[in-house]
TrEMBL record:
This is Uncharacterized protein. Residues 64-86 are annotated as: Disordered. Residues 74-86 have a biased composition (Basic residues). It comes from the Bacteria.
Length: 86
């Protein structure tokens, strides 16, 4: 296993190691990470990742902070399962 319970695939850790990574690339990595974490509030995990890796000025730090401000519960946007029921 590459990562741990907080970052099972090691995606966030790898993003901080990539020299010259852009914010757009970090957003893609963050989305992959969020979708792999399953349903639920990811705020505590994002905060822990920031505490672990949060290097000032790094694009992934910017993306993680934005993740704390916005919706952090990934869910499907299309298809019959995404439609409200009732």
């Amino acid at each position: 296993m590459k990562g741990d319970a907080l970052d099972p695939k090691g995606l966030i850790q790898d993003a901080y190691r990539i020299e010259g990574i852009t914010e757009a690339e970090c957003r893609v990595i963050f989305l992959d990470w969020a979708l792999s974490m399953g349903e639920g509030d990811l705020g505590p995990q994002i905060a822990a990742l920031l505490e672990r890796h949060g290097v000032e000025g790094h694009p992934m730090t910017t993306v993680l902070r934005a993740g704390l401000d916005g919706p952090v519960t990934p869910r499907r946007r299309g298809g019959h399962r995404a439609r409200p029921r009732g």
